[in-house]
Specification:
By secondary structure, the chain is mostly beta strands. The chain contains 1 helix and 7 strands. Keywords: DNA-directed RNA polymerase, Metal-binding, Nucleus, Transcription, Zinc, Zinc-finger.
Length: 118
């Protein structure tokens, strides 16, 4: 099996899919069967591993609906106090930000949104 990009390989013993791994002693790529001891060396043309990194802008990372109070899929709590109107019911959700994981709360009465850093 040579060239033409990566192909699915199957074990001649069990017909199961062969998986890639590194033979650390010989420093080569091999394909192995998870069901039996069969393994075969990969063709050198298959040694290249591709990595695709997707970069998002900060705007893409922080896309949040403007009014989440009417979203029935989001959890609600009555254990908070809105800093703006003192109402005790809020919708909440988490998001990853530059600071880490952040808990966003949205008051069900006035719509005020605030953060609680987890």
């Amino acid at each position: 099996m040579s060239g033409g990009g990566p192909k699915l390989r199957f074990c001649p013993e069990s017909n199961d899919l062969l998986y890639p791994k590194e033979d650390k002693e010989r420093k080569v790529l091999v394909y192995f069967c998870r069901s039996c001891p069969y393994q075969e060396d990969a063709d050198p043309s298959d040694w290249c591993v591709y990595r695709n990194e997707v970069h998002h802008t900060s705007r893409e990372k922080s896309v949040v609906l403007q009014d989440v109070r009417s979203d029935p899929t989001l959890p609600r709590t009555r254990d908070v106090r809105c800093p703006q109107c003192a109402n005790n019911e809020a919708v909440f959700f988490t998001a990853s930000t530059e600071e880490g994981m952040t808990l966003f709360l949205n008051c069900c009465n006035c719509g005020h949104r605030w953060r609680d850093y987890v």
